[in-house]
Design a protein that fits this description.
Blueprint (H helix, E strand, L loop, with lengths): L1 E7 L6 H14 L4 E7 L5 H6 L7 E7 L4 H15 L6 E5 L7 H7 L4 H4 E11 L8 H12 L3 E5 L6 H17 L9 E2 L8 H8 L19 E7 L5 H13 L5 E11 L2 E7 L4 E5 L6 E7 L3 H8 L1
Parallel strand pairs: 1-4, 1-5, 2-3, 2-4, 5-6, 6-7
Antiparallel strand pairs: 8-12, 9-10, 9-12, 10-11
Helix pairs in contact: 6-7
């Protein structure tokens, strides 16, 4: 049977960066892997970033989110059925950060997927500098994803402190208490990702997963989330960052949760990932200018006008 891993984490945690490293490790071990991405937006930015893994031992597939839960489940099942015929040793799934864990566990226990796949590892990525002011819905996604993981991998530990890391763990515990979970997260990987070893990755490939009872938060509905996709925008890096700050500071555009995309400035391309709490900019070898705005109750006309 094919092992299938879930790489999850709330919006902006760093899942795709981790997946690049995790996927490269598996390829270097001689495994043939398939990566299934599904996210909000007509253009999947993460697919573009993962393109550097594509080769004889790695193929990329995509499922577009943004539909209702039943539709997304059908798309997910259909894609996994087709991938089961491709001879993969392992399939890696990276969903949107706004993700209900039942969307992973339930289909894999149903026919026909249970004939093809067995769950390998569930890995949840959490920012080591987790902000305190998450709302109830965001805390629900944080806690449920962390509780289902065999290992929680902390990102940006090199930019954090022991005090902040401990604070992040306590926040996850408090979020778990809110949904009356019967257990706590007890397996963390706390290292600068540049220092991860083969032994670390081998541990993650065998960390398994957890089943935990908890109360779902009323209103925590992935159907509420939407996106606006804008291509070929004429903007430089500072302009992009300034517009991102204005999106988060004004309610007129809706409830903005994440802004991500690419911008070319003076011949250099950059990847921009922004949440209300931080904006990360990294050079990257992709030339198109584009932005995806993710949130709830979006005023799409105003967002398009804002970037026009």
């Amino acid at each position: 049977m094919i092992k299938v891993d879930l790489i999850t984490g709330f919006l902006g945690s760093g899942k795709t960066t981790f997946l690049l490293k995790y996927g490269r490790h598996l390829i270097n071990k001689g495994l043939k892997i398939g990566i299934l991405e599904y996210d909000y937006g007509a253009i999947n930015v993460d697919m573009l970033l993962l393109g550097k893994l594509r080769g004889p031992n790695c193929e990329l597939e995509m499922v577009a989110a943004g539909c209702d839960a039943d539709c997304l489940r059908r798309r997910f099942q259909t894609k996994l059925i087709s991938m089961a015929m491709s001879g993969y040793d392992r399939v890696l799934i990276e969903p949107s950060g706004v993700f209900d864990m039942d969307q992973f566990f339930d289909p894999l226990r149903d026919e026909p997927l249970e004939k093809f796949y067995e769950i390998g590892s569930v890995i949840t990525v959490v920012n080591a500098n987790l902000m305190d002011n998450l709302n109830e819905e965001e805390d629900y996604y944080l806690a449920s994803q962390a509780l289902g993981a065999g290992c929680v991998v902390l990102s940006r530990t090199q930019l954090s402190t022991p005090e902040n890391i401990e604070k992040t763990k306590k926040h996850i515990d408090a979020a778990a208490e809110k949904i009356r979970a019967g257990k706590r997260v007890n397996n963390y990987l706390e290292k600068n990702w540049d220092d991860l070893t083969d032994a670390d990755f081998d541990m993650l490939t065998n960390c398994g997963y957890n089943i935990c009872d908890y109360i779902k938060v009323t209103g925590a509905d992935t159907d509420r989330f939407d996106s606006v996709n804008i291509l070929d925008i004429d903007i430089d890096l500072e302009g992009f960052k300034e517009k991102t700050r204005r999106l988060f500071s004004s309610d007129e555009y809706g409830n903005i949760i994440r802004v991500k995309g690419f911008v070319n400035d003076k011949g250099v391309s950059y990847q921009v990932n922004a949440t209300q709490y931080e904006t990360l900019v990294d050079p990257i070898a992709i030339g198109s200018n584009m932005v995806i705005v993710i949130g709830t109750d979006l005023n799409k006309d105003k967002i398009n006008e804002f970037f026009a």
